[in-house]
Amino acid sequence: MTRDRGSVSILFAAGLTAIIMIIGLSVDGGGRLRAAQRAQDVAAEAARAGGQAVDVARVLAGGPRQLDPAAAETAVQDYLRAAGATGSADVSDDLRHVTVHVTLVYHTRMLSLVGIATLTVAATATAALVST
Questions:
Q1: How far apart are CA 102 and CA 56, in angstroms?
Q2: What single string gives the DSSP state of each residue in 25-41?
C-alpha cells in the first residue's frame, strides 16, 4: 500500500495545471477576439475619416470628385492616434478609395504566466468615395 502514496498529488497537480491552461486560453482567446474586433472597428472608422478628405479645390474648379491623398493620410493618422492604434493608409491610384491597415497589441492576462505577454492583431478596411 505504501507504493501508491503520493500518486493522487501528482494527478491533482497535472489536472490543476490543465484547468489553469484552459482558463488562460479562454480568457486570453476572448481578449484577442475583442482586440481583433476593435482593430476592425478602428480600421473602418479611420477609413471613413480618410474618405472624407475630398480635394475641395478640384471640385470647386468643376473637376471630378477625388480624394486629396495628403489630407486623407493626415485624417487617418489623426484618427489612429486618437484611438491609440498604429497603422497606415493607402489611397488608390484613381483617388477614389482609401485603404487602412491597423495593428493593435493585446496584453495577455493568463498566457503571460507561460511567457506569452502580448498578441498582435491586425485589420484592414476600405472606404470608397461615392459621387452623387
A1: 27
A2: HHHHHHHHHHHHHHHHH
26-73 tens-digit pLDDT: 999 999 999 999 999 999 999 999 999 888 888 788 888 889 999 999
- Cell of residue 124, nine digits: 484592414
Q: Which residues does residue 86 pair with via DSSP β-bridges, in sequence order?
A: 103
64 phi, psi to nearest 5 deg: -70, 155
Nearest to 28 by CA among 104, 105, 109: 109
Contact 103, 120 (CB under 8 A): yes
Strand partners, 7: none
- Joined together, the cell numbers standing for residue 3 give 507504493
> Looking at the whole model, is its pTM more than 0.70?
yes
Question: Whole-angstrom Cα distance, residue 76 to residue 71?
Answer: 9
Nearest by Cα to 125 from 71, 94, 85? 85
